[in-house]
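Homework help board

Subject: predicted structure for assignment chain

Our instructor gave us this sequence and asked us to write out the predicted structure in token form, then describe one feature. I got the tokens but I'm not sure how to describe them. Can anyone check?
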Amino acid sequence: MDNRMIKKLLNSISTRSGAAKLALGVVIILIILKVIVSIISNSISITAQATDSFLDIFSIGITIIAVRMSVQPADEEHPFGHGKMEGGGCFGADSGISGLGRRRFHYLLCDTAHY
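My token output:
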């Protein structure tokens, strides 16, 4: 690789959206590897890890959308810019993950209690 290409790559990763895109790529590669290892080893633990990584995709996807919205310049409706969207995106991702966890917990306690 050329030195200029490495600098360009590092500069693109150093941005907020570049970091989120890199994280998304890494998580997708990890999911693929975990699924392959899970199939080969027939391990329920690795299958659970692969399933957990899907939540990471959800969270990173919301982060990418929030970062894209937060870097928009100020306009008439938002004279101070859109910077707060990043925090709103984090709150949305956390709420979604918490909701899924709460639903699963309710299923484990209530729906399986009569068996």
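Reply (TA_rk): Your tokens look well-formed. For the description, you could write something like this. Residues 44-70 form the longest helix (27 residues). That's the kind of observation they're looking for.
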